[in-house]
Design brief:
59% of the residues lie in helices and 0% in strands. It is globular, with a radius of gyration of 22 Å. By secondary structure, the chain is mainly alpha-helical. It has 14 helices and no strands.
């Protein structure tokens, strides 16, 4: 916070000034930027307290619980007490941190109750460094639970926390349109154009590129997609909050969940409205991302067949 926040603000100001002088005056909108900064300031105030309790306390508790407590699970069963601090252990920790981040991020898009917290970050129609600090305040409460397994198997808690910080720094700088495709770097790393795909509301781009600083897990689990230069990117979400009020931005999806839960008296329907994928509905009144992408694929196949039939046949 001491060094990061001034750097973040400085880079936002630099990108803002650059955009105004290079015919990209639409890159930033004043009210939207102020809303993003407001969310960022709130996160900067809340995060240290919550992370101290949730991350550091939980990680240390799990680390100690698995060894020497409970019969020394790591020593007696796994065969080691701790991985230590060797340089290769740091690399392994960073890799597994990215693996954990991938699943944390992916579930934020697949489970509606988690999406209600994460949608804050996607709620802007703009993609810039200001959007990078537009973070929800509630994701901090459950994020550590996706990383608990790392101190449990022997990574020192402080090492996990440092790797989380490195991940966050990489994520910040991804939110800019001024970095083009990076050639060979894109074979391994999550880059700026890939993150543009992630923030797009184009149907074919939805729920893609969940990785942190690597893209290998997206490629392994089928969620990777490159930026297509022929598709005009539209940023944001299908149903934005339509407000710059911080409280509405933070809570609008929870309100929508509550309204949907009341639509049906069936308890399974109620459960799915809360913990099912965003867009799920019992009556087909709204669609999930997978359903929309499947429909889009079918429409394009039908259009392709129609175009083939429309080809003029040679005269006999």
């Amino acid at each position: 916070l001491v060094y990061g926040v001034p750097c973040f603000l400085g880079l936002i100001a630099l990108e803002l000034a650059y955009s105004k002088s290079h015919k990209r005056k639409d890159l930033y909108q004043t009210k939207d930027l102020l809303a993003s900064l407001g969310m960022g300031i709130g996160s900067a105030v809340i995060a240290p307290l919550i992370k101290t309790i949730s991350a550091i306390v939980i990680f240390n508790l799990v680390y100690e619980l698995f060894n020497p407590l409970v019969g020394g699970i790591r020593t007696n069963i796994l065969g080691w007490e701790s991985f230590g601090y060797a340089w290769y252990v740091w690399l392994m920790c960073q890799l597994l941190d990215d693996f954990s981040y991938y699943w944390f991020h992916r579930q934020n898009h697949n489970v509606r109750f988690l999406w209600a917290a994460h949608i804050v970050h996607h709620s802007s129609d703009n993609f810039n460094l200001g959007t990078a600090v537009r973070n929800g305040w509630f994701t901090i409460l459950y994020k550590p639970f996706f990383y608990m397994w790392m101190p449990a198997i022997g990574f020192p808690p402080e090492m996990v926390v440092v790797c989380l910080g490195i991940e966050a720094l990489w994520q910040f700088q991804l939110h800019t349109v001024y970095v083009p495709k990076l050639g060979l770097i894109e074979k391994v790393f999550n880059t700026h154009t890939m993150h543009q795909v992630h923030h797009a509301k184009n149907i074919e781009y939805m729920d893609k590129n969940h990785g942190g600083f690597l893209n290998i897990f997206d490629k392994m689990f089928g969620t990777w997609k490159a930026l297509d230069d022929d598709i005009e990117v539209q940023y944001g979400v299908s149903h934005p909050p339509k407000s710059y009020n911080l409280w509405i931005i933070l809570t609008h999806e929870y309100k929508d969940i509550w309204n949907d839960v009341k639509k049906s008296g069936n308890w399974w329907h109620k459960f799915m409205y809360i913990f099912g994928p965003p867009g799920w509905s019992h009556d087909g009144s709204s669609l999930t991302v997978k359903q929309m992408q499947r429909n889009l694929k079918m429409e394009r196949e039908i259009q392709g067949k129609a175009a083939s039939r429309a080809v003029v046949q040679p005269n006999l």
